[in-house]
Amino acid sequence: MQYQISGKQIDIGEALQVHVKEELGGIVQKYAERPTDAQVIFSKSAHEYVCETIVHLSTGLTAQAKGHATEIYAAFDQCAEKMEKQLRRYKRRLKDHHRERVDPVEVFGGSSYILAKEEGQDEAEDATLQPMIIAEMETRIPSLSVGEAVMQMELAHAPVLVFKNEKTQGMNVVYRREDGNVGWIDPVNNEA
User: Fold this and answer.
1) The last residue of a domain, from among 69, 96, 123
2) Shortest CA distance to 139 belongs to which of 171, 110, 162, 160?
3) Distance separating alpha carbons of residues 37 and 63, to the nearest angstrom
4) Which residue in 18, 28, 55, 121 has the fewest CB atoms around it within 10 Å?
5) CATH (domain of 142)
6) What is the Cα–Cα distance from 93 to 91, expressed in whole angstroms?
């Protein structure tokens, strides 16, 4: 597994890097059979250290966790505990599925846009009803089953996930509802 360990405006020592590789490597090997890479980013927020970890698995799924503490090692340890819990749940769900994914998840390219807030627009812009694009980025759209999409959304702590449904080959959306349940949008394709 490849590691990318960095600090935002803080120096990361060799001892911390070795600790991260040993601890995270042990956790990931225990619950994920074929991890590809891990990103660990340390930063400081006021008096606390923050550790953010993202692990990419060969199945195409991504797990991420974040930890906060007054000491840098404690922040990583808290983050590692959360990562272990996520990967344990992920492995249990994979065992519960009727089929295990042998091939990696197919991923398609797409565009992601950030739109400006409406409150700063003047009357001329409001008349056109066209929001102003302030950023454009590439995004990845995975080809998943509905169950895998829900699992990926939960692993990423995302409120919504757009994916290509492996069964219908159509674009679908799963999202977290206000009542705590998960919603699924499966548009009907009416071909003329």
Assistant:
1) 96
2) 110
3) 11
4) 18
5) 3.30.505.50
6) 5
Give 41-86 pLDDT, tens digit per residue. Answer: 999 988 999 999 988 877 777 788 899 999 999 999 999 999 888 8
Rounded to whole angstroms, how far apart are CA atoms 124 and 61? 44
Task: Report the candidate in 34, 74, 73, 76 with the shortest Cα–Cα distance to residue 55.
Answer: 34
Global confidence as pTM: 0.61
Same domain membership, residue 159 and residue 80: no
Total domains in the fold of the chain: 2
Gap between the Cα atoms of 28 and 35, Å rounded: 7
Tokens of 18: 């070795």
34 and 64 part of one domain: yes
Nearest CA-CA partner of 32 in 83, 99, 107: 83
- Tell whether 83 and 124 lie within a shared domain: no
Whether residue 77 lies inside any domain: the answer is yes
